[in-house]
Structure formats: structure tokens, C-alpha cells
Structure to design on (483 residues):
């Protein structure tokens, strides 16, 4: 694959490239991708800057029409894109297909934003004057995305950037560059003018920092880890750029004594292990009232033993590999630290070989018991298929433990009591709350984002996207003839 700059597919200025391997079969090479540097970023930003005046001058419905056509392209290519995504990132094919459908839905939602309001009209102190606000674009926007939702996250950042009149420099993750390239190709085929969307591929430190430091990039929307997010924030805030950070999670499912335990078991396990636990909204802590601790633990153990781990292209696979050797090492290391701190491993956690005994970054989903709320397993984002059980005395202690982490992305409670459900929704520190539902899963048309260290107090998706990708102008028009 190549970079896409100024409407042309091209190699990196350096001529350097890297190979991306299939994380389920490391000898299966997906392809090679450019290792770009600041020179490529400079060219991409220049192309985006040159394209901006004409793009913002185009009517919003005309911009939306291009997104509609891109959605059609994504829908038509969905099955092929899903296979590419599964091979490149290890996401099981059923989940990858659902993500391709979702990416098309996201483009359609934002295409329709072109036909919704871009401002408001007010009654002013002056009865003769027309007083209104107008949402205007920002300029050249940088988009930096992770690999775990390689179509959906670029879609929910790039589509609003474009429909509201911005031009874009997009840096996907190295582990998902081919999928990102296929996404950009759909937008290009849909008729996006040259320079409106530019793709630059390569190392995060090199390109991500070059985008953040570039004086012509007025805003950056980033989804990824807290460590990278805080580095970016320093660079961006120091030069006064607008910044949106969507970061990690340590999401709890609180199970109360009156809960439907079968429902809780199924949704907690899926929340913990789908996409091998590599979701920011993955369930990673089960906080359970003591009265139902034993029966829930037994159910979880039984359900864990039924999980199918294997080739992401196999429709029967629930859990595929981790995305990289680096992630595998990190997940194995965190489990070892958890055990050293006294957590009891009830199930799984061992490294597995790939399909047919080939090399792959597989780990058997792990269930830990007797996890202390202060331990690494209960505090740090693991980003792997690892679930920790934390027993608590009662609802009050459950809320305290659930809130006792630095993150606040998503949370679930399982209960049949309305008073408890309402109290949980009110008191939990989380941007996404589910009553009798999975912590994971995001609807395309509603605001999404976290509290505390999980976000920069911003929200993505749905109508909330207009907040980040536009700025407001307040206009008063007074007829000259009125004295
Ligand atoms: P990451 O932070 O390693 O990388 C994210 C992006 O930043 C990639 O494109 C990467 O190349 C780039 N990058 C890396 N180093 C950089 C640097 N020094 N400067 C600028 N850019 C740099 O994250 P990841 O491993 O790709 O994704 C996993 C993380 O993303 C998890 O923490 C997860 O919780 C988070 N995530 C959050 C959400 C959300 O909406 N809150 C959604 C998905 C993933």
C-alpha cells in the first residue's frame, strides 16, 4: 500500500517501508506499507491546506453526497474489507463484518448531518437585527487512530471532519494501515477532491508528532493509549491547537445479588473477550456482591471453558490473536504481575500457538479470582482477554470499587431493582452506562466518550461531533436604513 497525498497514491519520501504480518500466522505477510517521515507530513498538510478553501466553500449537502457514495462503496466492499481487517488485525471475521457495516452506517449518519442545522437563530436586544450563530470549519485537522477498530474509528472521526468543511491528514496505526488504505480508497472513489483527505502511514512517534507539531494543523482528534495521548496533549496545547483525546478504560460490570446471573455471565464474558479484550470498552472487572459471588464465579468459569480461540477467518472463532508480539508480551507480563500480587488464576492465561501450530500471538482468555481492588489487574488497562473477579460486601462498596480507578469510560450493572439501577447510573463515573447490558458496544448516532482519564471531556459521534469539528461564529445583521 502507499500514502495518499494530494489525490495521488505514492511512496514515502524516504522510500522506506515495513511489512505487516498476520497476527494469527506470522509468516502470512499482508503487504508492505510506507515508513513515512516529517517530509511526507509536510506534503500532506500542504495539500490539505491548499484544498481547504474550495472544500469549505462547497455546499454541505454536496459534501454529504460524497460521504453517501463512500458509504455505498464501503457497503459493497464490506465482505472483502472484513477479510482484510481480520488478517491484518486478528479481529474475528464475524466482528469484522459487523464493523464494516457499522462504518458505512457512520458515514451515512454524517452524510445526513449536512442536512441538519449548522447554527441557531436568537432573539436579540435589537428587534431590527438578525442574530444567529453559525458553525464554521476549523481548517486542516489531524486524525490519529488506533488499530482495534480500524474502520469504525477513522469513520467516526473523518466523516464529521469532512462534512463540516475541514480537510484532513489521517495517520492510522501501523498495525491497521492496509485497512485504513482501503477506507481512504472508498472516499477517493466517491469523488473527494484531491487534498481533502490525505493518508500518511508509518511510525507513531515520527508521524504522529510531526502532525501534532505542524503549525498548519489547527486541531487533532486522537484515539489511543493514555501514554501517547498525554505526549500529544503537551505538544498541541503548547501551540494552542484544539485537541480531542479518547483514551483507555478499566470498565467494571457490577453484579448485584438480585441479578439475572445467566444474562450477566453471558454479557460479561462477551464484553471481556470479544476482539481478544482489545476494546477500550471491554469488561475487565467483575465486581460482585458476596451473596452471589460463588454461583457467578462457577458460571463464569464454565463459560470461559467454552470459548473458542482460533483463526479469525473461521466463523466459529470467538477469540482471535492479540494484534502484535508487543501486546502479547505486555498482556502476559501484566498477568504475571497480578499473580505475584496474590490474584488467583482460575482459568486460562497461557500462550497458545496459531492455526495448524503456526506462530501467532494467541493467549487463552484468562479469569482471575480474589483480585484486590488495588492490584495491577484491577487498576491498569490490560487490553487483552483478561477478566478479574472482585467480591464486595454490598452495593455501596461495589460503587466505591467501580469508581476507584483513574479511568471512567464505560460501566455496567446487573440488577432487577430499579432503585439500584437508577442510583448506579447516577453515581458511576463513566461516560457510557449500561443497565443489564455489556460495557462494550457503541451506537453510531449517540455521544461517546469517557470521564476522568478516559477522555479530554470531549465527546465523539452523533450530533456531539459538531462540537469538536467546528467553531461557532455569532453574527448580528442590522439593516443599514434603520436608525
Ligand atoms: P497507541 O496510543 O499506541 O497508538 C494510537 C495511535 O497513536 C497510533 O496511530 C500510533 O501510531 C500513534 N502513536 C504512537 N506513538 C505516538 C506518538 N509518540 N505520538 C503521536 N502518535 C503516536 O494505542 P493503540 O495501541 O493503537 O490502541 C490501544 C489504545 O487505544 C488503548 O489504550 C485503548 O483503550 C485506546 N482506545 C480508546 C478508545 C476510545 O474511544 N476511548 C477506542 C479504541 C481504543
Amino acid at each position: 500500500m502507499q500514502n495518499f497525498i494530494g489525490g495521488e497514491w505514492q511512496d514515502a519520501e524516504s522510500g522506506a517501508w515495513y511489512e505487516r504480518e498476520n497476527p494469527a500466522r506470522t509468516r502470512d505477510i499482508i503487504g508492505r506499507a510506507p515508513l513515512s517521515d516529517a517530509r511526507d507530513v509536510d506534503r500532506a498538510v500542504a495539500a490539505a491546506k491548499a484544498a481547504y478553501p474550495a472544500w469549505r466553500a462547497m455546499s454541505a449537502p454536496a459534501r454529504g453526497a460524497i460521504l453517501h457514495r463512500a458509504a455505498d462503496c464501503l457497503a459493497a466492499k464490506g465482505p472483502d474489507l472484513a477479510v482484510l481487517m481480520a488478517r491484518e488485525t486478528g479481529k474475528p471475521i464475524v466482528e469484522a463484518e459487523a464493523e464494516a457495516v457499522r462504518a458505512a452506517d457512520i458515514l451515512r449518519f454524517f452524510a445526513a448531518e449536512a442536512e441538519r442545522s449548522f447554527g441557531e437563530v436568537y432573539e436579540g436586544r435589537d428587534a431590527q437585527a438578525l442574530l444567529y450563530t453559525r458553525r464554521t470549519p476549523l481548517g486542516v485537522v489531524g486524525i490519529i487512530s488506533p488499530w482495534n477498530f480500524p474502520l469504525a474509528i477513522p469513520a467516526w472521526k473523518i466523516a464529521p471532519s469532512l462534512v463540516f468543511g475541514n480537510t484532513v491528514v489521517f495517520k492510522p496505526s501501523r498495525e491497521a494501515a492496509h485497512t485504513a488504505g482501503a477506507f481512504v480508497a472508498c472516499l477517493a472513489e466517491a469523488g473527494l477532491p484531491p487534498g481533502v483527505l490525505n493518508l500518511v502511514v508509518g511510525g507513531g512517534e515520527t508521524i504522529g508528532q510531526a502532525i501534532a507539531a505542524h503549525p498548519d494543523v489547527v486541531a487533532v482528534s486522537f484515539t489511543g493509549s493514555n501514554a501517547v495521548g498525554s505526549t500529544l496533549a503537551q505538544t498541541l496545547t503548547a501551540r494552542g491547537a484544539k485537541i480531542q483525546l479518547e483514551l483507555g478504560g478499566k470498565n467494571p460490570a457490577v453484579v448485584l445479588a438480585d441479578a439475572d446471573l445467566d444474562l450477566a455471565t453471558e454479557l460479561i464474558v462477551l464484553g471481556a473477550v470479544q476482539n481478544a479484550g482489545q476494546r477500550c470498552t471491554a469488561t475487565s472487572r467483575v465486581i460482585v456482591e458476596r451473596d452471589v459471588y460463588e454461583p457467578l464465579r462457577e458460571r463464569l468459569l464454565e463459560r470461559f471453558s467454552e470459548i473458542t480461540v482460533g483463526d479469525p477467518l473461521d466463523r466459529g472463532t470467538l477469540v482471535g490473536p492479540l494484534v502484535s508480539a508487543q501486546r502479547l508480551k505486555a498482556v502476559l507480563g501484566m498477568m504475571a504481575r497480578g499473580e505475584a500480587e496474590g490474584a488467583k488464576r482460575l482459568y486460562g492465561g497461557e500462550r497458545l500457538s496459531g492455526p495448524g501450530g503456526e506462530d501467532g500471538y494467541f493467549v487463552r482468555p484468562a479469569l482471575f479470582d480474589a483480585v484486590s481492588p488495588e492490584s495491577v489487574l484491577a487498576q491498569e488497562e490490560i487490553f487483552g482477554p483478561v477478566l478479574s473477579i472482585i467480591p464486595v460486601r454490598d452495593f455501596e462498596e461495589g460503587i466505591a470499587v467501580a469508581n476507584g480507578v483513574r479511568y471512567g469510560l464505560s460501566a455496567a450493572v446487573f440488577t432487577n431493582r430499579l432503585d439500584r439501577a437508577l442510583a448506579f447510573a447516577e453515581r458511576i463515573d463513566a461516560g457510557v452506562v449500561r443497565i443489564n447490558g455489556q460495557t462494550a458496544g457503541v451506537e453510531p448516532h449517540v455521544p461517546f466518550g469517557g470521564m476522568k482519564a478516559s477522555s479530554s471531556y470531549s465527546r465523539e459521534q452523533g450530533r456531539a461531533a459538531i462540537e469538536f469539528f467546528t467553531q461557532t461564529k455569532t453574527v448580528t445583521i442590522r439593516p443599514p436604513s434603520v436608525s
